[in-house]
Task: structure prediction
Amino acid sequence: MSPEERAREHIDEQLGLAGWVVQDRLAMDLGAGLGVAVREFALATGEADYVLFVDRKACGLIEAKPEGVTLSGVADQTGRYQSGVPDVLPTHEHGLRFAYESTGVETFFRDQRDKDTRSRRVFSFHTPETLRGWLAESDTLRTRLKAMPPLLKPGLRGCQVEAITNLEKSFADTRPRALIQMASGGGKTFTAVTSSYRLIKHAGARRILFLVDRNNLGRQTRREFQQYPTPDDGRKFTELYNVQHLTSNTFDPVSRVCITTIQRLYSMLRGEPDLDPELEEKSMFDTAAYDERPKDVAYNPRLPIEAFDFVITDECHRSIYHLWRQVLEYFDAFIIGLTATPSKQTLGFFNQNLVMEYNHERAVADGVNVGYDPYRIKTEITEQGGKVEAGYYVDRRDKLTRKTRWEQLDDDFVYDNKQLDRSVVAPDQIRTIVRTFKAKLPTELFPGRTEVPKTLIFAKDDSHAEDIVGIVREEFGAGNDFCKKITYRTTGEKPEDLIASFRNSFNPRIAVTVDMISTGTDIRPLECLIFMRDTKSSLYFDQMKGRGMRVINPNELQAVTPDAASKTRFVIVDAVGVFESDKTQTRSLERKRTVPFDKLLDEVALGNRDEDRLLSLAGRLAQLDRQLLPKDRAELAGLARGKPLPDIINALLDACDPDKGEPLARQALANQACLVFDSAKLRNALVDAKRRNEQTIDNVTKDVLLEAGPAKEVEDRARKAVESFKQFIKQNKDELTALQIIYSKPYGKRHLTYEAIKELAEAIQKPPVNLTPELVWQAYERLEKSKVRRAGPQKLLTNVISLVRFAIGEVDALEPFDEVVNRRFVEWIGQQARANRRFSPEQMAWLQMIRDHIATSLRVEMADLELSPFHDKGGPVKAYQTFGTDLSKLLEELNEVLAA
Result:
C-alpha cells in the first residue's frame, strides 16, 4: 500500500466516524445519506480526491496527501478545484465553500465565506449535520466576531472592560487562543460569563464549554451564570439560555453552556459510561504530575469536534496544557484561558497571546484586592525536629484507621522536621503554633479585635488536618462549630455545605483544609491564612495566597465578623517557612499515579520494566522508606536477600539514568534491580508496611517558641513603597500642581484644590509606582509606628496631603487629614472665644458641617452650600440667615485656617 493509499484509508475511516457515506465515483448514490463523500470526482480544473455532498448538493472537497506532507502549500491546489465547478454540478450557494487538506494524520480546514479566510488545523472532519447548519446561515461565526456591538460598561470594573474588549479584538483577528491573566478576586468568572453572553447573543455561538479545575468550582461557576443579570435584557442568564453542570457523562445537546472538569471530558471522549465523582474533587495542582504522559484522544461520534464553538479553561493547572493538551485541541473551537498565575508553559500554549495582564499589584491599587502582611511563627520542633529518649513510651498510630497502641522505646527516637505530620506527629508543636496565634491575635495580628477573624489553615493531609482541628478547639476553648475540617474525607456534612457556612455564617471561625479550598474558591470574608504545610510550586503558592486577597463590602463582612470595620488587608501566618523555601517546578518520579502499589509490584515482577513503572516504584518506595520503623527496615532487608530498601531504590533509579549507558545496558540494570521483586514474601511485606503507614506520636517533647513577628518581606515591601513614593515626589515636584503648591509654602494666592490632589493620587497609582495613599500610609505605619496615627476605614483622598507633607519633612507626625482639620478647627474656636466671638448652637452645627466638607474636599465655596448636607439644612438662604453678611468672609477664613 502506497503512502497516499494509506492516507486515504485513514481519511475514509475518519469520514465514516463523522457520519459521511464514502463512495467511489462510479458507485455514486447521493441518496445514501445526508452527507456523501465521493472519491476521485472530476472537476473543470482537475480531479478532486473527495467532493462532499450535503442534501444531494456539492458543498466542499478534500485534497488527500501522504502522511508527512506539509499542508500549508496544498491550499492553492484546493483553491483551483473550488473554482472549477462544472455547470452541471448542483451546488449550494457559494459553491464548494468548505475545503479540507488532509494526510489522515493532520487535517486543515477553511470556510471560503469567512472574511480573510485562512486554514486552521482540526482534529477530524465536521459532520454533515454541521455543514448543513452552516450552509443555512446568512454569515459565519468568524464574520460575526468581526462586527460585535459596543460593550455595555455599567456594572463592569475597568479591568473587566479591558479584558473583554481585548478578547473580542483577538477574536476579530481570528486568533485561535487567548489568555486572560487577572489577579485572584479580580472577577475572572464574571468576565467570562459576560463574554459568554455576548458570544451567544451577538456572535451566534451555539455552545460554550467551561472547564474548571475541580467540581466544587463547577458548582460555583454555575451559580455565577444563574445570578448574572444580562445588561441589555435584565433577565438572568439561565432564564435565557440553558446551562448544564455535568455530573454524569450524559451531554445535553440543548445546553448553550456546559460546565465540567477536564477529567470528566476526557472520560466522555473515551466513551466511558461514567466517572467516579471523587476524581473531580481534587485539584490538579496537587494531583497532576508534570512528567506524566499526555492523554491520547480518539474521535468520538457522540461528541464531534464542532460540539463547542468556544472552550474556556478556568484556573486550570499548567498540566492541562501538557497532559490534557489533546483533549483541548480535539474541538474546533476558540480557546480562552483564565488564570491569576500563568506559567511559561501556559503562555506558550496560548501562543503568547496574553490579551489581559492584571496583576495583584494593580488589583490592590484599584481596590479589587487587598494586600497581605506575612507573620512568621518559628518553633524549635518545626525548625529542628525532636528527640524522645529511650525508656519513654510513645504512641504508634495507624494513619488510615487512627488506631493507637503504646510502645516503650528501647533506643532514642530522633526525627527531623521533614518527618513532622507525615511519619511523626508532635502535638505540642501544633499546640505551640495555635497557642501563639491565639495570643497574638488581639495584639499584633488584628489589634483591638475581639472576634477571631475568618481563618483558613492549610494542612499536609487529612490526618494532619484532624489533629489541627482537635487542638484548635481545645486551645480556643470552643465547640465543634468553631473549627471545622473541610477536606474530601469530611463525613456527615457535605464539603460544599461547609464551605457555604464558612463563607456566609458566623461559624465556623476557623477552617482546616488540605487543598479543597486552595484554588479558585471564593470566600471573601477570609482575613487570615495559616500555612502549616509547605509547597514547592510558586504557582500553587500564589493560588493559595489568593484565597485571602478578595475584597468584601464592609456590611457583608460585618454580617459574619461583627467587630470588623472593613477588610483592608489580610494576614498570612507562616508556621513552616513557606515564604523562605525554594519554589521550583520540580519533576515528579510518579508516572503511574492511577496504578495501585500492589499492582505496580506485580507488574514489575511479571517483567514490565519500562522507565515509567520503575520510576513510579522508586518514588513510592522512597516515600515508604521515610515512614518505616527500624524493625520494619530490618525485616524487609532480610526478605530482599540482605539488600536495604535505599539500595533497591537507587538500583531502580540507576536503571533509568541515561548516563548509565545505552538502552540495552540500562535494560540489563533494570532486570538486575528487579530480581528482588521475584519474592512474593517481599512484595506482600512491602504492601503490608505501606498499609500500616504508622505515625509516631511524640507526647513527650515540649515545643519552644523561637520567634513570632512580622516577616521580613513586609518590612522590605514597606521600605520599597516609601522609597518609591519619595522618589515620585522628587521627580514630579515641578510637574504636578498639588506638589508645586505644597513645596512653595507660603502659598500666596495659590490654593490646593480637590482636582489637584485627585490628579496627584491618580498619578501615584499609575505604573511604574503602582501605589495608593492607603498602601503608602500602611508602609509608614509599619516603619515609623511611633510617628503615625492609624487612618480610619474611610478612604479620604485628602490624606495624600498629609503623606506628602510627612515625606518631605514639613511635619513631624503623620496624621489623617480629617484629624488635622479637626484639631485646627478646635484651635480656631478657642481663638474666637478668647476674642469674645461666640457662636450659637445652630451656628456651631453649620461650622461643623463646613469643617467636615473641608476635610474631604479641601475648600468650601458658596456654590457648595447647595449640596448635601447643607441643602438638607436650608442651603445658602439658611446660611445667610444664620451668619448674616459675614458668611463669605467666614468661609474664606475657614478655608485658610483649616486647609493651609
